[in-house]
Amino acid sequence: LRLLLLAALPALPQALPTLSLTPSTLSFTYQTGAAALPPAQSIQVKRSGSGAALDFTTSLVGAAPWLIVTPVTGKTGTSISLRVNPTSLNAGAYSAILQVDATGSAGPVTA
Questions:
Q1: Using an 8 Å Cβ cutoff, are 41 and 72 in contact?
Q2: Is the model more confident about 77 or about 34?
Q3: CB within 8 A of 61, min separation 6: which ones?
Q4: Which of 8, 16, 35, 98 lies 20 to 30 Å from 105 when distance is taken between CA atoms?
Q5: Is 87 helix (H, G, I), strand (E, B) or coil?
Q6: pLDDT for 10 beyond 90
Q7: Integer Cα distance of 26 and 95 in angstroms
Q8: How much is the pTM?
Q9: How far is it, in rounded angstroms, from Cα 98 to Cα 84?
Q10: Which tens digit of pLDDT belongs to each residue from 75-88?
Q11: Residue from 71, 74, 87 nearest 35 by CA
Q12: What does DSSP say about strands 67-70 and 73-75: parallel, antiparallel, or unpaired?
C-alpha cells in the first residue's frame, strides 16, 4: 500500500525591500541680499534588492515652507530635486527633515 500525502506549506515570509536616499544630507548656502538663489540639489531614491520599482511619496517633517521638493511622488530609481527660497528668512541656520515612504517597503527613510 502506498500513501501519498500532499500538504500546502505556508510560504516563507519575504523581507520587504528597504529604501535609501543618496546623498542622505544636503547643505545650501545663501548670502542675504544675493541676487541668485542657491542651485537645486538632487537626492536619488533607491530600493534594496531586485524587483519592480516602488511608488514613493515625500513629505516634510515639520514646517519648512522655504524648502521646495519636486516631485512629491515618483518611483524608486529616480531622483527628487530640492531647492530653497530663503529670501523671507532671517540670517541663521535652518534645517528640515525629508521623509520618503513607499507602499511595499519596510518603512520610511529620512534625510
A1: no
A2: 77
A3: 96, 97, 98, 99, 110
A4: 8
A5: helix
A6: no
A7: 10
A8: 0.83
A9: 13
A10: 999 999 999 999 88
A11: 87
A12: unpaired
CA–CA separation, 49 and 14 (whole Å): 12
Amino acid identity, residue 32?
T
Contact (CB, 8 A) for 54 and 73: no
Residue 4 CB neighbours (<10 A): 4
If DSSP codes are grouped into helix, strand and coil, which group holds residue 101?
Answer: strand
Distance between CA atoms of 55 and 41, rounded to whole angstroms? 21
- Residue 12: which pLDDT band, with cuts at 50, 70 and 90? low
Q: Looking up cell 524587483, which residue turns up?
A: 51
Give pLDDT, residue 2: 58
Q: What nine digits make up the cell of 31?
A: 548670502
In the three-class reduction of DSSP (H, G, I as helix; E, B as strand; rest coil), residue 86 is classed as helix
